[in-house]
Amino acid sequence: MSTVVEELDGVVDPTGAPAAAGEEPGALRDARQVAEYYYQRGWTDGLPVAPCTEEAIEQFLARTSRDPDEPVLVMAHLNRMCTVREAAINAIMAGCLPEYFPVVLAAWDSLHALGVGPSALWQSTSGSAPFLVVNGPVIDEIGINAAGNVFGSGFRANATIGRAIRLATLNVFQLKPHLLDQATQASPAKYTCCIGENEPQNPWAPFHEEYGFSREDSTVTAMLIRGTLYMEARHTSDPEQLLADFADSLSRTGRNAGQSCLVLSPGHARVLAEAGWSKADVREYLRDNAVRPIADMDRAGKGGVSRQRGYLLPIEHPDAMNPGGKREPYRFVRQPEDVFIVVAGADNAGVSTIVEIIAPNSTSGTGRQAPVPVKVETA
Predict the structure, then answer these.
(1) Phi–psi pair at 268, nearest 5 degrees
(2) Mean pLDDT of 88-107
(3) Number of DSSP helices (H) and strands (E) in the chain, helices first
(4) Would you state the pLDDT for residue 324?
(5) What is the C-alpha end-to-end distance of the chain, expressed in Å?
(6) Is the Cβ–Cβ distance between 257 and 332 less than 8 Å?
(7) What does the CA dihedral 163, 165, 170, 172 come to, rounded to 10 degrees?
(8) How far apart are CA 116 and CA 264, in angstroms?
């Protein structure tokens, strides 16, 4: 990536020279030329990227006190690392504004603390992608969306902060599809997945306060995810009906036991909180009730557990562990701490989302690794 700026020399006409008769204006013509040049060089995620200049890099680096050559993430098994400067280059290309850069760096630090560097999960067939949750005053300061369409498009900060991470995985770590990235199908989160928590409409303490931060602190929490599951429950005000619905969705046979992030709409969160349910109560309920009878698991060919990888497979499979004695119902939530709860989205319908997490400390992704919120650097 250190050659990106050097190779741009001559590609962009910084003077924006006027177009000749019948030609497009110089700036527009050059912008298209740059976008095509970046794509041909393999520096994009398939979408056009913003031009990167030394002036822009200096503006981004001015937003942090960190050394430009400091690594933000190292992948020793690939003999590659991403530095602060390279993180800035990719943030610029992603379309970030300079004021977003401290949030991008906090995201990198959270990924590092999560243990992403030593793992190969960004390369796995599961198609894992970073999921970023932002808390604190920075949400309003830079315009991160935490309300309606929170997982959707239309908000520059959400779109480009997540994309800055993705571009660096492609350009710095060279985790390109069909090569080092072996995702079977992947998910749209591979483009970007960054949300804010809707703190004003959260009936409980914000997510980052559970980890010792104050409401005045701005943080970013990174998780690796496989995908999301839409959860609709529009017509109940009974908290146990709502939680039974969540438990059933969590206990689908198409997933392994593991961690999940429950992104509750404000309406669903309010139904629970007004009935006296705490986040701890919700977690315990899901631990106890996200369960499937072993007969259901057998019918789906998921009644056994692999000795080698921890995957679910048919009980008669040669790699299946011998359960010995009575076979117990399968629990999809092994402990309450495996469920993380965030409140986000609009307060206009009973719709929430289950985000399936893949842990970086196990080969199958069924292990446990608590996410690590990281404080955003302030000027």
Answers:
(1) -65, -40
(2) 98
(3) 11, 13
(4) 72
(5) 27
(6) yes
(7) 140
(8) 26
Tokens representing residue 61 in the block: 């680096």
Locus of tokens 């400390």: 361
DSSP assignment of 204-233 equals: S--GGGGGT--TT--EEEEEEEEEEEEEE-
In this structure, are residues 371 and 213 in contact, taking their beta carbons and an 8 Å threshold? no
Each residue's pLDDT tens digit, 53-78: 999 999 999 999 999 999 999 999 99
Distance CA 221, CA 177 (A): 26
Of 276, 190, 209, give the one whose Cα is nearest residue 240: 276
Q: Element (H or E) spanning 57, and its range?
A: helix 54-61
**What's the CA gap between 152 and 155, in Å, rounded?**
8
Q: Which H/E stretch holds residue 38?
A: helix 26-40
Residue 197 pLDDT > 70: yes
Residue 97 amino acid letter: L
Segments making up each domain of the chain, as ranges? 42-290+332-374
- Angle at Cα 220 formed by Cα 214 and Cα 225, nearest 5°? 130
Which SS3 state, helix, strand or coil, does residue 82 take?
strand
Confidence of residue 11 (pLDDT cuts 50, 70, 90): very low
How far is residue 369's CA from residue 339's CA, in Å, rounded to a whole number? 11
The one-character DSSP state at 251 is T
φ, ψ of residue 223 to 5 degrees: the values are -135, 155
* Nearest alpha carbon to residue 229 among 355, 370, 77, 48: 355
List Cα–Cα distances, 323 to 222, 302, 329, 365, in angstroms. Answer: 35, 13, 12, 21
